[in-house]
Structure to design on (164 residues):
């Protein structure tokens, strides 16, 4: 009886050994294909990087922000005399534009139900005065209006609304 068992076990081992080399390449090839597909998915952005964000994608942009036009020029005068310049910029408007270029916006926050904005590392609320130095001279701008979408700065009669 023990000879039969030994013979039966040896036949069983021979059958398993014969089937094992045939199954291993299929499992190995399938595993290789799955691994290669996973690596391709992981390195897709490295090989083909996405387009970098443009200046309008930055929510904290300051210098790239669109400014209102300085002088409106119309090419059609109606009488054939050529282009006519729109309203001229006042000295307060020019100073306000220069002061705006020196501002660094840090963010918008709500303190209770009061909106506040961080400009040049200081917080300001609606009605606050902020000081900007132009050519060594202080210029005082007033925060006229402040919403979660925009801020309106004023200097004398000049107004400048910036949208976040």
């Amino acid at each position: 009886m023990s000879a039969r068992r030994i013979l039966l076990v040896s036949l069983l081992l021979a059958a398993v050994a014969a089937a094992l080399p045939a199954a291993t390449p299929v499992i190995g090839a399938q595993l290789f294909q799955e691994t290669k597909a996973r690596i391709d998915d992981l390195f897709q952005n490295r090989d083909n990087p996405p387009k970098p964000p443009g200046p309008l994608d930055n929510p904290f942009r300051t210098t790239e922000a669109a400014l209102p036009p300085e002088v409106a020029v119309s090419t059609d005068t109606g009488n054939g005399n050529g282009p006519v310049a729109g309203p001229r910029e006042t000295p307060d408007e020019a100073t306000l534009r220069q002061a705006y270029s020196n501002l660094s916006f840090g963010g918008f926050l709500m303190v209770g139900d009061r909106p506040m904005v961080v400009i040049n590392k200081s917080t300001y609320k609606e009605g606050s005065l902020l000081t900007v130095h132009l050519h060594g001279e202080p210029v005082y701008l007033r925060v006229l209006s402040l919403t979660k979408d925009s801020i309106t700065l004023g200097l004398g009669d000049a107004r400048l609304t910036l949208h976040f």
